[in-house]
């Protein structure tokens, strides 16, 4: 069959007939426009044109095959006939590329804040906006970090710490150290290989990786990138259509996932203003088509654009549904109060992650580490501490944070943004170095606190009384302070004479 030409596709350039090209193939998305989770305006921007570059980071490669009826697959396009778009020139782009060329060598990154610092300078603005943002005033996001500073060690001396064993078991699987790479969406915003970078680094270091529902790579690509021995978990956003959910869960189980993490803190995605603002800045330059009355608000950022399928009616009543469709251990990710942990035990789930989604959901929700202390006290009072595995995430940037969490009773700790930053700046090697730095720190901390293995990290080794105080008098963590981007206000038009 003869290939379509650029001119053929260009005839379908409005909402009455809207075709787009993705990876050399044309698709008729006219009927799909109102359903597009990211709104129709963004598709209309590419109507009649090649949308591959915008499409790629946000959608796994199998999206169109899976979700767009075959009758709308219009055929291959002879890409030589497609007009090359004159791109809007981003005034910052040349400077950014210059910074990429002059990045510090990887060996000069000594801690996770260093990766964040480099990533901030070299990532595209929209990607940085999506990864770094927190909800509203970002109070919870910042407290996630500072909460760890309120816990002090009570080190033991004269313990023979020549040999240190950092290994542990999480949900029955071995890990070289008690932290894991948690689920973070849209990996390709940061690196063209997306989440597969994290998979490869996890394999090299014997770490567990949690695969997100909203990965940029397809789920199967991420599983195929694994070395066949490593452990992967699956993070689930529950779809309003339970048949779709069931299909996804069963597929995850059939591909060997060792845990199902159901995210329960996101019935609606939080407002992340840095993300919204960076997206808006980009779209502001788009030429408004004549007669285009589309009112979809594109200023919502990448997060809202991808999440409209998530079911806000999800409730405790749904837990048996999941227990019926899978044998994978079920863990509720995003639990934020003690009595919900008690309910989780009563519902027979295997674990909880005490998490506020990296401060991206409800602002002034409690930090995982603070909640952990209260949760373990309640579980121990009931002698229930072995009935459920408790994990935390949020703000972990030093191995000492992991040590503190394990002392307080966590089975393990999730780390999100730092690995995204390491990946965005330096790819797989960057993630490997970030993990190695944490391992080195962890081993040193174990020696200095006087613990030879993870089971010797016990509550009496920390003083966590300070957790009750939410305002730290001692000022910011300076390393974090240099990379933290303050929230900004809307920009005035040029020469506003402020
Ligand atoms: C860019 C980004 C994307 C995320 N995407 C998801 C997601 O798709 N599903 C989910 O359950 N949690 C998601 N999270 C939350 C993380 O799993 C985790 O709770 C959080 O990142 C931990 O905080 P940290 O980034 O300070 O380590 C995301 C976090 C970030 C930063």
Automatic annotation (TrEMBL):
EC number: 1.1.2.3
Subcellular location, principal: mitochondrion
Enzyme category, top tier: oxidoreductase
Keywords for the protein's UniProt record, in alphabetical order: Flavoprotein, FMN, Heme, Iron, Metal-binding, Mitochondrion, Oxidoreductase
Places the protein is found: Mitochondrion intermembrane space
Keyword Ribonucleoprotein: no
Cofactor(s) in the UniProt record: heme b; FMN
Residue ranges of domain Cytochrome b5 heme-binding in the record: 1-78
GO molecular function: heme binding; L-lactate dehydrogenase (cytochrome) activity; metal ion binding
Any one annotated GO CC term: mitochondrial intermembrane space
GO terms of biological process kind: lactate metabolic process
Keyword Mitochondrion: yes
SMART domains, per the entry: Cyt-b5
Gene3D superfamilies reported in the protein's UniProt record: Aldolase class I, Cytochrome b5-like heme/steroid binding domain
Location of the FMN hydroxy acid dehydrogenase domain: 104-467
Reaction catalysed by this enzyme: (S)-lactate + 2 Fe(III)-[cytochrome c] = 2 Fe(II)-[cytochrome c] + pyruvate + 2 H(+)
Family label: In the N-terminal section; belongs to the cytochrome b5 family.
Quaternary assembly: Homotetramer.
Protein name in the entry: L-lactate dehydrogenase (cytochrome)
Source organism per UniProt: Pyronema omphalodes (strain CBS 100304)
């Amino acid at each position: 069959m003869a290939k379509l030409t650029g001119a053929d596709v260009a005839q379908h350039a409005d909402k009455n007939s809207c075709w787009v090209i993705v990876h050399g193939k044309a698709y008729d998305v006219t009927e799909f426009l109102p359903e597009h989770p990211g709104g129709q305006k963004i598709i209309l921007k590419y109507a009649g044109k090649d949308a591959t570059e915008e499409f790629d980071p946000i959608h796994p490669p199998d999206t169109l095959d899976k979700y767009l009826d075959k009758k709308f697959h219009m055929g291959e396009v002879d890409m030589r006939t497609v007009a090359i778009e004159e791109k809007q020139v981003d005034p910052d782009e040349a400077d950014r590329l210059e910074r990429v060329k002059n990045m510090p060598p990887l060996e000069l990154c000594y801690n996770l804040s260093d990766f964040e610092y480099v990533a901030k300078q070299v990532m595209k603005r929209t990607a940085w906006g999506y990864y770094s943002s927190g909800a509203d005033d970002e109070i919870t996001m910042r407290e996630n970090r500072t909460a760890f500073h309120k816990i002090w060690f009570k080190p033991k001396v004269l313990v023979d710490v020549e040999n240190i064993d950092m290994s542990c078991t999480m949900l029955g699987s071995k890990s070289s150290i008690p932290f894991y790479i948690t689920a973070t969406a849209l990996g390709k915003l940061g690196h063209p290989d997306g989440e597969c970078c994290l998979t490869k680094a996890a394999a090299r270091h014997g770490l567990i990786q949690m695969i997100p529902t909203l990965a940029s790579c397809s789920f199967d690509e991420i599983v195929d990138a694994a070395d066949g021995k490593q452990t992967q978990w699956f993070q689930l956003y529950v779809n309003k259509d339970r048949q779709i959910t069931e299909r996804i869960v069963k597929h995850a189980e059939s591909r060997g996932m060792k845990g199902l993490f159901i995210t329960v803190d996101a019935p609606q995605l939080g407002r992340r203003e840095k993300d919204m603002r960076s997206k808006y800045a980009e779209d502001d330059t788009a030429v408004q088509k004549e007669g285009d009355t589309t009112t979809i608000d594109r200023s919502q950022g990448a997060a809202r654009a991808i999440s409209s399928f998530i079911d806000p009616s999800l409730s405790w009543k749904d837990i048996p549904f999941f227990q019926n469709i899978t044998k994978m251990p079920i863990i509720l990710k995003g639990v934020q109060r003690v009595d919900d942990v008690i309910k989780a035990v009563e519902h027979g789930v295997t674990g909880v992650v005490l998490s506020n989604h990296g401060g991206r959901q409800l602002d002034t929700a409690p930090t995982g580490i603070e909640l952990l202390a209260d949760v373990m006290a309640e579980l121990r009072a009931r002698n229930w501490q072995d009935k459920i595995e408790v994990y935390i995430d949020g703000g972990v940037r030093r191995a000492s944070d992991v040590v503190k969490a394990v002392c307080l009773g966590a089975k393990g700790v999730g780390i999100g943004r730092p690995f995204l930053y390491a990946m965005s700046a330096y790819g797989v090697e960057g993630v490997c170095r970030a993990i190695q730095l944490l391992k080195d720190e962890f081993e040193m901390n174990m020696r200095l606190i006087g613990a030879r293995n993870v089971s010797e990290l016990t509550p009496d080794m920390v003083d966590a009384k300070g957790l009750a105080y939410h305002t730290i008098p001692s000022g910011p963590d300076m390393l974090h302070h240099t990379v933290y981007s303050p929230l900004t206000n809307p920009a005035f038009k040029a020469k506003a004479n402020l």
